Amino acid sequence: MDAGISTTTDRELVITRVIDAPRRLVFKAWTQPEHIARWWGPQGFATIHCEMDVRVGGTHRFGMRSPQGTDHWKRGVYREIVEPERIVFTFAWEDADGNPGYKLLTTVPSPSKARKPGSRCAKPRSRRARVATTHATGWTSCFERFADYMLTIAQGE
Questions:
Q1: Which of these, 116, 119, 112, 115, lies nearest to 142 by C-alpha position?
Q2: Could you tell me if 144 and 120 are in contact, meaning their C-beta atoms sit under 8 angstroms apart?
Q3: Are 77 and 87 in contact (CB under 8 A)?
């Protein structure tokens, strides 16, 4: 498995991870709640809520619990679904009152020749702020969990 992080502009973060699994299985793991709940979030976090309406205009909402017991909530809207090639969705953390904070636009491509999903996040904040909030670290950790999960379910295929 290979991983890479780059920035193409001050407002864009690109994370690439090679996953040795069939594209249809990768797509399923990103679009079915029973799968995404098993790997979503940074290492050590547990999914406590997973609600998904995977269609253009459909919404998603996830709750995660940190190893310290703090709950974190996020929500968004699916903008594009091209099975098994691409998923585009918004992503916003909720505050304590359930109000969304800044919004990210996330694209998960799955190139046709290589079995390599990546994530491209456009974030309306500066590069310095992105680094300060450890956004890249969280996504990288999430992809570690995703890769481990894909190994587990790909063996059962």
A1: 119
A2: no
A3: no
Q: Which of 6, 24, 22 is nearest to 14 (CA)?
A: 6
| % the chain with pLDDT above 70 | 76
**pLDDT (tens digit per residue) in 71-120:** 999 999 999 999 998 999 998 889 889 888 878 888 887 655 444 445 54
Q: Identify which of 82, 136, 146 has the alpha carbon closest to the alpha carbon of residue 104.
A: 136
How far is it, in rounded angstroms, from Cα 26 to Cα 115? 9
Q: Find the helix or strand (DSSP H, E) in which 24 lies.
A: helix 23-31
The predicted model scores a pTM of: 0.79
CA distance 142 to 42: 5
**By CB neighbour count within 10 A (0-12 exposed, 13-18 middle, 19+ buried), where does 103 fall?**
middle
| Nearest partner of 90 among 111, 62, 70, 68, judged by Cα | 62
**Cis omega (within 30 of 0) for bond into 84:** yes
Nearest one of 116, 139, 115 to 15, comparing CA atoms = 139
CA gap 154, 72 in Å, rounded: 29
